[in-house]
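Our platform keeps sequence and structure together, in a single record for each protein. This encoding replaces a full spatial description with a residue-level series of whole-number codes. We quote a single record here, exactly as it is kept in our systems:
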Amino acid sequence: MGPLRGLWRDTWYVWLGYLTMLLALSIFLSWFFLLALPALSVAFCYFAYIRYDENAQEKSEF
């Protein structure tokens, strides 16, 4: 849970922007855009576990 918390703490505004954009596109254009939600959740988890450790701190590059 630490990596997810760390990424959310540092980039919450970006992910909320993506979610808002997807919801707006799905309301105004097509429900098809909601299919991107699983892809966003996979990308979020991937970046969280790659960049953050168990204590929600960024991993060092070395």
Remarks:
- The mean pLDDT is 91.
- The first helix runs from residue 2 to 28.
